[in-house]
Amino acid sequence: MSSCRQVLVLDADQLSTLAVVRSLGRHGCAVTAAAASPHAIAFQSRYASQHLIYPDPLQQHRAFLEWLTNTLTNHSFDLMIPVTDRSIVPILTIRNALEALSPIAIAPNPVMEQVVSKCRMHSLALEAGLDVPESWIIKAPAALDDH
After folding, report:
1. What is the domain extent for residue 74?
2. Are residues 70 and 96 in the same domain?
3. Are residues 63 and 25 in the same domain?
4. Alpha helices, DSSP H, located in the chain
5. Phi and psi torsions of 67, nearest 5°
6. Does residue 127 sit in the same domain as residue 92?
């Protein structure tokens, strides 16, 4: 990873992100950690050279995407790593525009769309003959009363 320079890592409030930040930092990358919370755990890492706060993607989807577009436009990142579904799902909606600004470390959209769909993963597990717990697909809040 000797060519690693500037990496933007999202979801810095997660322990898994802390591991990503540490690993990249140990390999000589300059890591910018970003999260919706100013108290994100990865901000405490000595390997996070910069901290950025973004709008919560779950509550402010459009504002998050605008922030991300502006950040990638105004900074030169060699790679962006979204770590959780919370940031990945909105990114998928404008992936092409974002990839024009920075490479993104996630699988292709068709793969990601299957992975983030719990319903689709359940179906794939059944098709593969795996044992899965009894499950119900709830498509509307009113259907909760049936279970």
Report:
1. 6-106
2. yes
3. yes
4. 15-26, 61-74, 85-93, 95-99, 109-116, 118-127
5. -60, -45
6. no
Structure tokens, 115: 């992975």
Collapsing DSSP states into helix, strand and coil, what is residue 1? Answer: coil
The total number of structural domains in the chain stands at 2
111 within some domain = no
Q: Kindly report, residue by residue over 85-133, the tens digit of the pLDDT.
A: 999 999 999 999 999 999 999 988 788 887 777 888 888 888 999 998 8
Say how far residue 145 (Cα) sits from the centre of its chain. Answer: 33
Separation of alpha carbons 93 and 19, rounded Å: 27
Rounded to two decimals, the pTM is 0.83
Which residues lie closer than 8 Å to 85 by C-beta, 6 or more apart? 116
Neighbours of 45 (CB within 10 A): 21
Secondary structure letter of residue 51 according to DSSP:
E
Residues 11 and 64 in one domain: yes
